Structure formats: C-alpha cells, structure tokens
C-alpha cells in the first residue's frame, strides 16, 4: 500500500484503546466509508462545535486549533453564517442565470490581484481549480509537461493526483510530470533558490528531450506540503526559466492566499513574480465549497472561447455570499495585520522553547504559517517518530497541529487568521511542556 506523507504521517493507527462509544463510532465510520479515509492522532478527536480559533469535543473540552486553514476567518464566523443563511433563504441557482452578486464579487476579487489577471472562473474545490488550470495551460501552450515540487499536494482529481506526489505513488501515469526538490532553506543555507531554479531548468530540458515540452510550472509559494519554506526569494528565478521556455506559471494559492502570509493578500505577491494563472480554494468560503481560477484573459480565453466550462455548484449565490463575507471579515478585522503580528509572536515563542530543546532544528514561517523542524539532536536529519510523538503530546494537551515535509518531520502550524496573542501563550505553554516530556 502506498504511503502518503500528507495523509499518513499523522494517521490514527487503530491501535489505541479508546472508550466504547468512540470505538463504536470509529468502527461504524470504517464500515460505511471504507479504508481510504483517515483520522488524525493516536487518539482521534470527536469534535462537535467550533468558534474562532477554538474547537470543542463531545464532552465539552476546549481545543486550540492551530492547524485548520479552511475556516480562515475562524470557525462559525457570524458574518459568514449570516451571509450564507440569507442567500439560502432567498435563491441558490447556478451561473447560467443572471445574478448581480457574482459580478460584484468577481470585480472585488480581481481588484486584489495584479492588473494583468482579469478573468475568473468558479468551481467548488482546489482540486477542480487546479485541474482546470492544467487544461487551460495545455490548451494555451500546446504542451502538456508539468514541473512540480517533489512533495507537492495540489488536489485529488486524476489529473491533479499526477502532480501531487505527497498523495503517495498512485498508479496515475506521470510521463509528463517532472518533480524537483523544494528549496530547503534549512539545509541549503543561502543557495536554495538558485539550486531550485537549476533543477527546474533541468526538468524543462528533460521534458523537451522527451518531446513533451513544458506547459506549466505549479507551486504554492510557502511549499506547504514540502516542509514550509517561506523565504521571499525562492521562486523568481525558476518562474523566469519557465516563462523563457514558453511555459506558464500557476500559483496555487490555496495555502498561502487570503492574507495568510501577513505581507500580501496572495503568497506570490511576496516573490515579485507574475503568475499566468492563480488557483484558489479552501479558505475562500470559510468552509463553504467554492474555488476559482484567476487568469490573464489571453490565456483563459484561449480555452474558454472554444470549450464552455460549467460547474453546477461553482459560483452559486450561496457560495458567492460566503466568499464575499470572507473578504469583508479580512478587511474589517484587519486579519492580514493580525497574521503578521501574531505569527511573529508565535515564532518568537517557539524559538524560545527551541533554545532548550535539542530536537528542534529550525523554526521558520511567515504570517500564520509556521514550520518547525524536528531533528535527531546534533544533526539536521529529520526525526519522523519524534515529530509524530510531539504532535500527539500536543493533542493530549488539547492543541491541534499536524505534520508535513519529505521526511514527515516538520510540524505544520497553520491556525485560522483570528488566532490571538492569548492563543499564542496557550500554544507556547503546551509546546514547551510537550517538548520537555519527550526524551
């Protein structure tokens, strides 16, 4: 059976002894959902309610959510709830009827992007958005080759699974895909961006030699599943190489987008690069399924002028209402500034703990996206087992995070944007205690 870093590094093994009610629920879930679904943690969490950055289990125990970016503006945000309720109570059709709100929201969304990005197409999930972006890139360039990072995750359609190595080595044909290691700023010490660009050039040359050619280079600019590398100078040279070869750059903004970096609305904005296509997903509707592809019109129209695109639930009045409310909250509550300030405080607190913990090799991040390298003491070798233990010790202290990276050793800390300084104190107190009790 294939091993998926993104799904299996923090997977419930089924070996824990739990209370009878939880055991019964897990058994029922497995019976009706099958083996493809995964649960987090050695002891799964049975959640029934959320508010802001906090979650509550079936017994009323409160947890600190330091992981979930889908409710980007917080669990059960009243503004989103009200907007969705109002839309559902009024009308919820599809995009083959006229509706003013989709036009109003589209203008507002495009206004947050560089001027050359002037078309938007709606879907329901990031997987669908990335699938569509690949179709558009192939149509525009006439080439089907794709360059991705070695542990990328971009979704789970057939086409997108082929460019998502962290899903596990599925049987999807990948003769048109070339994988390059992400820029490892912890171990490459100032050379990561140049090495990354050199690898991208080599991948382009290999695609050319195979008669495939490069159609697209897709990356999320915080390298979220590769291990979280957030320096701002990592992708520019690589993007330039792709453009020089006639390929398109797809910025997958599902992870770094919607103000998460604290420096820019979109992750690519920190790198001085010009995407040809931008894909949006998860946080866009704060949990209501909506996603989008934003593109240069010359690129988008090369596809849509000949091939109509329709997604029944993409861009409905309900999903547009949720997405519009998300932008309202980001602006009204100044969540980009919050991401910057609280993210800095969080990393400072973690770094203080790391100073007395030899298993913490590196603390890095931007805004409310933080990666913590767990290593064998005295080395830079990733320690998968210790990272998993640490994640589960935090879970036992009601703090929820997960793991990413090639070696499954990087703690992924990615809370809702409403994470507060008091949440930072809670996190760092429990993090220090968890580190102290792992020997």
TrEMBL record:
GO terms for molecular function: pyridoxal phosphate binding; transaminase activity. InterPro entries: Aminotrans_3, Aminotrans_3_PPA_site, PyrdxlP-dep_Trfase, PyrdxlP-dep_Trfase_major, PyrdxlP-dep_Trfase_small. Keywords: Aminotransferase, Pyridoxal phosphate, Transferase. Gene3D superfamilies: Aspartate Aminotransferase, domain 1, Type I PLP-dependent aspartate aminotransferase-like (Major domain). CDD domains: OAT_like. It comes from the Bacteria. It holds the Pfam family Aminotran_3. Belongs to the class-III pyridoxal-phosphate-dependent aminotransferase family. This is 4-aminobutyrate aminotransferase. It comes from Williamsia sterculiae.
